Amino acid sequence: MEAKEILKEHIAKTASLTDEQFDYFYSHFKLLTYKKGQTLVTEGDKVDCEYFVLSGCLKAFFINDDIKMYILQFAMPTWWTSDYNALYSNARATINIDCITDVEVLCLSSADREKLCDEIHQVEHFFRWRTNRGYVASQKRLLSFMNNDAKKRYEELLALYPQLYNLVPKHLIAAYLGISRETLSRLYSAH
Amino acid sequence: MEAKEILKEHIAKTASLTDEQFDYFYSHFKLLTYKKGQTLVTEGDKVDCEYFVLSGCLKAFFINDDIKMYILQFAMPTWWTSDYNALYSNARATINIDCITDVEVLCLSSADREKLCDEIHQVEHFFRWRTNRGYVASQKRLLSFMNNDAKKRYEELLALYPQLYNLVPKHLIAAYLGISRETLSRLYSAH
Fold first, then answer.
1. A133 touches chain B (CB under 8 A)
2. Stretch 83-112 of chain A: residues touching chain B, C-beta under 8 Å
3. Phi, psi of B158 (to 5 degrees)
4. Any domain includes B115
5. Which of A30, A93, B69, B168 is 20 to 30 A from B2, comparing alpha carbons?
6. Does the CB of A77 have a partner CB in chain B at under 8 Å?
7. Residue B86's closest chain A neighbor by CA?
8. What residues of chain B lie within 8 A of the CB of A128, using their CB?
9. CATH code at B68?
10. Which domain holds residue B33?
11. Confidence band of B130 (pLDDT split at 50, 70, 90)
């Protein structure tokens, strides 16, 4: 499917745009391709854009003072990713986003998102529900982190995103779960 | 300040409504008062409303299988609270919300929120940004949970919400931080 069709189908699940409105909306996106390992957002940078994933897989992560990596989010096709803290508050990035595989994304600037939300009510409707879902997913992950042990978190991840296990190296899954590779291996073989 | 004025001032920070629009918007809210200890949302219930806090303090929490309490959120004046997972997906509540003090809230039903968002573009704009901010706060808390030890999380909480320490019993602050009361006492006296 073409980039435009993928986005159109994605938006249509939440908002009703006429073909004309969608064409106008789409004209504000830039198609970008990245190679495995390339970086879209770097800690300390300004963040002007958010990304709609067309193909491939990215990770949003940060490295703490002990050089330990924590993965905040994987982003797969039809997911949106950015450093939203930086994007929404005009601050510098506090996380990094890079490509686990070759990646194709559609990029939308923050200025254009606000302009489009202002011009087309249904675009604002779409972005409200996009963030509502993100908020709920984030709260669920927090609850899971507070309450569940590594085994339960591993099983939740497996149930939610079975495709991750073919796409993503095991050490990155460990970094998402906040456990060591050895612990993950034990869980993996026990499964 | 009156309930209506508090909400009006809160909305005006994000969205531009005419007086007429705001009066119409406000007519959909119900003013409710609760006594300390009363419950607004109970695990397993249907959730139809969200709450804008006028006075007092609430906690959103869940109790796990080992009868350990985890606090997801405190809600203070001008904050919004509900079980958004249940509210947005029409599911049963997975958390509880009750009153730490006597509380006054304005209650808005989910059906009315969607109707108002549809009828008044600026109301949709308000709720989009309300959730954007909630999403960012939730991501920050997740990062903090993944990366920081109890001491750092305690200091973050103290910096963010100094007023909490006069309002909220210490064992609830421990439940928010995910630590024991003994550990909190050590942090508290060391501060």
1. yes
2. 84-85, 88-89, 94-95
3. -60, -40
4. no
5. B168
6. no
7. A136
8. 117, 124, 127-128, 131
9. 2.60.120.10
10. 3-110
11. very high
- In whole angstroms, what separates CA B191 from the centre of its chain? 27
Residue of B85, B127, B128 lying closest to A140 (CB–CB): B85
B84/B94 Cα distance (integer angstroms): 10
Given a contact cutoff of 8 angstroms between Cβ atoms, the answer to whether B97 and B41 are in contact is yes
pLDDT tens readout for residues B49-78: 999 999 999 999 988 877 888 898 899 999
In a domain, A100, yes or no: yes
Q: What is the total count of domains within chain A?
A: 1
Q: Which two tokens stand for residue A15?
A: 């908002």
B166 interface with A at CB cutoff 8 Å: no
Angle at B92 between CA B89 and CA B96, to 5 degrees: 115
> What is the ipTM metric for this complex?
0.91
Cα-based torsion angle of the residue sequence B126, B131, B137, B143 in order, rounded to the nearest 10 degrees:
-150
Tens of pLDDT, residue by residue over A123-170, are 999 999 999 999 999 988 888 888 777 888 888 888 877 888 788 888
CB B152 within 8 A of CB B144: yes
Amino acid, res. B78: T
Does residue A70 fall inside a structural domain? yes
Asked whether residue A170 is assigned to any structural domain, the reply reads no
